[in-house]
Amino acid sequence: MNKRRIAAVMISALVVIGFVGISEYRVSNELRPTTVYFASQDIPAHTEILDSMVTSMELPLKGLPPGIITNKKDLVGKYTLDQYGLAQNSYFFQSKIVSQDELMDAARMKLKDGQSLWTGSVNLLESSAGNVLPDTDIDIWFSAVETDGADSKWVIGKMYEGVTVLSAKNKKAEDIVAKNNTNTVNAQGQTTAPKKELYPTVVQLAVDDDQLQILNASLSTAFRDGTIILVPHNDNREAGLPELGVTGVYDIKPYIKSKQLDLDQYISKTKNTSETKQVESLSDIQPEGEKN
Question: What is the pLDDT of residue 12?
Fold first, then answer.
């Protein structure tokens, strides 16, 4: 009986010691100084976070809001969200700080001087079965059907070579690469693998003004069954962006240009027609005696 009591006392003592130890550890951990980062100034929305915009302070871990960033490397060089700025002395929250690629207009920010952003929808064939990806170069081909009376013929050729892809997204405007490689966490905290989307449905390219004009023209109703096909550029071939008028065996730009209305002639014709109508109108309101 004494042995049982002694064992019970020893077990109770161990439980108490363990509880006290755990409590002290938790209290010590909660009071542990943790480096916390604050905005040293007001930071507008959609702004790159510079080192000069960040200040730090050591605070006890207990009481800090969840989801704040405690590593400076996760701050500098990142961006505040669209329509979400930070006031001076605000915490940096993980859900409100993103990389440049995660911004809605990330593609636009990659444009160089003199470049424009062209956006087009593509399918499995037109995106080369998912081989058209951001930061790669592609060749742009175009096909259509030319009708002459009852006779129809297909026409196909190349518009440009070595054009840079800025983004490839799904129909929800989500980056296709990130979508295929980022795990998600559900409400129960369970990590699930991403649902694969094997090819993009929206592609954005960096082009100059002439290229933008030709690309948009090729999608007009002037062409029957007009289709743009994006082909991964062969790095072993000499890359280049043929200028308008530079022809080759497969150059289809002259054919596309042949369907274009001459704006100078149209404006001149419209102006002359307008002036003629104005003269006729003034002649109509002149008194009968003043008409020649």
Answer: 61
